[in-house]
## 1
Amino acid sequence: MELEQLRQLVAIADYGTMSKAAEQLHISQPSISRSVHALEHELGQDLFTHTRNSVILNDAGAIAVDGARKVLADVQTMRGDLDEHAKRMRTIRLGTVAPAPMWLLTERTVAAHPGTIFSTEYMDEQDLEKGLLDRTVDLAILMHPLALPTVSSRRLLTENLSVEMPPNSDLAGMDHVTWNDLNGRPFLVLESIGFWMGVVRDNLPDSQIIVQQDPQVFTQLIASSDLLNFVTDASAFSRPTTGRVRIPIWGTGASATYFAVCLNDSSDQVRRVLDLFEE
């Protein structure tokens, strides 16, 4: 018994005649007729009452159709479960302290290993280390390598923070600024900047920090306001905003180096990602 025979049997029940079923299934009527006869022979029972111009499901046929629907539904469920399993096997649970290294890692991975899927979450370093060790995180992006014999680390990149401002700002002519230069000035900050939010708040205690969730709205507000904003040399906003001046920040916390870290016994898929970066 083959699944195609069951599909044909159900199609005959749904469309009423072998000819209509054959038309819907894009096969010839003699082919579907032979398939039905073979199925009846295998089951040892006639499934249809044959009249001069039509075939009608008999009681045995009705039972067979119900069974065929259940089998086909189970097969569909099985395929869905297997697809979901395959997706989970391709999915890497990635925890990161900031967006920029995550962009680099995912871009390089997708180019080298198409089909890889990341489930990403922003976390602080303490939670990331815990998640890595208790295996709720497959791959962690930290600001330091873990000095443990059970883990492997690879350097990803160093990110440097800058500030953008209108060209008429009193700071616009400087080749660099410090936190003291910026403290007390209002800033518009994108929410999804990871640990950088803490750096900004710690170093600018007297500044008004306006947080925007939507990147598109953030870009529009920056273009139409005198508020200062932060960018990095590794961010999605790596090009200076039109009409703005970009100045690097010198000071503690204004740069960060990131490392990708995983357990030594991680899956081959995770190890392949880590191996995209030199030791």
## 2
Amino acid sequence: MLVEAGRNDVAGVDDLVGDQHYLSLNLDTAPLKLEVKEPHGFRPFVIPPRSLWISPSASPITLRLNSTLRYLRVSIDPLHLGRLISPSLDEVAPVRLRRTYAVQSPQIANLMLTLREEADSQNAGGLATVEAVTTALGHLLLRHAGIEQPGPVRSHGGLSALAKRRVLELIDAALDARLTVEMLSREVGLSPAHFARAFKESMGRAPHQYLLALRLARARRLLETTPLSLSDIAQRAGFADQAHFTRRFKRAFGTTPGALVRTLH
């Protein structure tokens, strides 16, 4: 999960696709006016102050806006959100949301502001607070923008609880290394093909997709919180080189790492 606050300097995006759910809160005193491309042309929307709009993952969007509004944005991985609000870790599915504009929910706004305060405090022990707030946020998002989920199906072909914990611990400890399916599968005594199927069954995405999402999240945190060079960040996040890092980052976030750094400084 990422929390960002600032002033918008983007006039529009074209066919932007993210792998996260994005919640954007209008912190200005004036309403935000934007135009979103739909099948029959651009459609106008107005986002009042202290209201938000929701951009779901894997849903392309083209929009135009003429505003330098102050915003607060929270991005959440759909599968992580599913883990937080699921009654059982054996029945986890990514949370699906629909694109929604002008959501007026004081509860969601206050929870987003709480996440910003927790991020600003840099409290090393704040993970429990963040998880609790994000869980509450997830339930509210389902109420305002949720898409009906299919009934949960208990997984019989995924990783065992012990194997899953071991693999996730290894990934977390060695995210900057050249992790491969072969290496991970050896850790839990499975063939690469069996491991890849079981991992996707348990985590909702293939191992390489899961690793890429974690690496991009780490890279973005480093860009926002450290003065490291782009090449150093690429290495610490586990990318092969800076060019590979830049391509993947732009595809996920719609901007290059260098451009993001310039907006921050």
